[in-house]
Amino acid sequence: MLRIASTFTVAVSVVALAFTSGAGAGTASQRLIGAVGQNGSFKITLKNSTGRVVRSLRPGTYTIVVHDYSSIHSFVLEREHGLEREVTDVSDVGTKTIRVKLTRGSWKVYCEPHEDTMVQHFSVR
C-alpha cells in the first residue's frame, strides 16, 4: 500500500501511483536510505541497507527512507527520460518514507535547486 503524506498534492499522488503500479511480478520490498544536506553539506546520497552507495539495483519494489536535513535542499527520484517523484521539497526538513517500483533503466536522485552538483546516478537492470 502506498502512503502519501497529506502535504502532497493530487498531482504528486498520481505520479506516485504510476511509480508503484505496472506490469510484472511483484517482489519483496527492499529498503534504501536517502539523505540530503546532512551537517549543512551540499551532498545527496542513496544507500542500500549495508550503507553502500547505490550504483546498480535489480528491478523491484523498494521502500526508500529519505532524511532531509536542510531547508535549502530537496530530494527527487527520477527515471531518466521518464517520471519523477519529488520526495521532499525545499521547505521540507525531516524524514519521509515512500514505496516505489523501480523498473529497468537509468535513474537518479538529485536536489532540484542544486542538480548540477547534487546528483547520484544509478541503473536498474
Figure out the total of helices.
1
Give me the Rg, rounded. 13 Å
Number of strands: 9
CATH topology term = Immunoglobulin-like
- Please tell me the overall pLDDT: 83
Molecular structure report:
- There is one protein chain.
- The chain has about 120 residues and is mainly beta.
- The protein has a 5-stranded mixed sheet. A 4-stranded mixed sheet has the order 2-1-4-7.
- Strand 1 (about 30-35) and strand 2 form a beta hairpin.
- It has a single domain (about 10-125), classed as Immunoglobulin-like, CATH 2.60.40.
- The protein has one helix at about 10-20, and strands spanning about 30-35, 45, 55, 60-70, 75-80, 85-90, 95-100, 105-110, 120-125.
- About 25% of the residues are buried.
- The two termini are about 25 Å apart.
- It contains 1 helix and 9 strands.
Nutshell version of this structure?
With 125 residues, this protein is mostly beta strands. Helices cover 9% and strands 42% of the residues.
